[in-house]
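Example for tutorial group B:
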């Protein structure tokens, strides 16, 4: 199989294992490219991509833009803070106006779950979901899995732990889907108030004892508290959260094994993870950042093969 089964990247739940393997295999090639002295390839020099970010983002936006430029695509960056959306224009009208300038692909970050799917069914362009509310963040999950595979090989039967604010995290849901597709065992850990009840239906293990969960896993992915999405108080204080679920070198040293440490960023140092742990030899956080460019190059390239140019 040398093409994706989907025409858009809306969420991991729409992908199959062949899609994941193709994305990872293509990313291997692009990772080699971005480590050369000349880091560009002319693969997409006839493609125009619009980055539409209706939520603040630094890492994801930069990673997508770099991936697009490494592929020699033409890039338009759009920020909702300076747009007609502020004047009441709808999302579909905004995108259709942009597409009339002959744009082939749209990378969308939006606060509303389902925004990427809405666009995919209403506009004539390839849509890549760069995060929609607390729903999915598929490229983050793909780069996370790719980073784990570099260290562990095949993820089948590996134990992967996701810790923190599961309820408000699009990263957690996309990771669960991606890891289960690859046959990994997935456990979540955090306060009861931050773990949704429906996770049991997805076959995910739930553990509230942080130390017990760490002893079980091969990899731990530490999520930040999504304060911007919280409308209520979900735990007594940040200090209490840190005491129960903050990852420190003392906790790591108490384990009788080494585990890999991941974080999707941005890191709140001293809250979910201490600085010495974030910068330790077990941390693969910077690998995730590097791999993000290769994975996004892979996805953009593979999706561009499936659609005629918007002439």
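The residue assignment follows.
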């Amino acid at each position: 199989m040398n093409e994706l089964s989907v025409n858009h990247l809306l969420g991991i739940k729409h992908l199959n294992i062949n899609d994941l393997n193709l994305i990872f295999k293509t990313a291997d090639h692009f990772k080699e490219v971005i480590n050369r002295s000349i880091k560009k390839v002319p693969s997409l020099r006839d493609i125009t991509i619009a980055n539409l970010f209706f939520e603040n983002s630094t890492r994801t936006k930069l990673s997508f833009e770099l991936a697009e430029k490494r592929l020699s695509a033409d890039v338009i960056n759009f920020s909702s803070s300076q747009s007609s959306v502020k004047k009441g224009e709808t999302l579909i009208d905004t995108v259709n106006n942009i597409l009339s300038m002959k744009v082939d692909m749209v990378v969308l970050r939006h606060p509303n779950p389902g925004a990427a799917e809405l666009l995919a069914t209403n506009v004539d362009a390839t849509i890549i979901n760069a995060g929609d509310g607390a729903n999915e963040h598929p490229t983050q999950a793909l780069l996370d899995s790719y980073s784990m595979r570099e260290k562990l090989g095949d993820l089948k039967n590996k134990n992967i732990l996701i810790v923190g604010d599961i309820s408000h995290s699009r990263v957690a849901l996309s990771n669960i889907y991606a890891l289960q597709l690859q046959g990994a065992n997935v456990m979540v850990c955090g306060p009861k108030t931050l773990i949704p009840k429906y996770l049991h239906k997805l076959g995910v293990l739930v553990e509230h004892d942080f130390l017990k969960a760490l002893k079980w896993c091969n990899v731990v992915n530490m999520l930040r508290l999504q304060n911007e999405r919280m409308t209520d108080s979900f735990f007594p204080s940040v200090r209490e959260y840190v005491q129960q679920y903050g990852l420190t070198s003392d906790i790591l040293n108490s384990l009788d094994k080494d585990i890999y440490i991941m974080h999707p960023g941005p890191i709140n140092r001293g809250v979910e993870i201490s600085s010495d742990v974030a910068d330790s030899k077990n941390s693969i956080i910077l690998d995730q950042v590097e791999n993000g460019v290769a994975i996004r190059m892979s996805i953009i390239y593979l999706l561009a093969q499936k659609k005629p140019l918007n002439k």
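Residues 5 and 226 are 32 Å apart (CA to CA). Compare this with the pattern of hydrophobic and polar residues in the output above.
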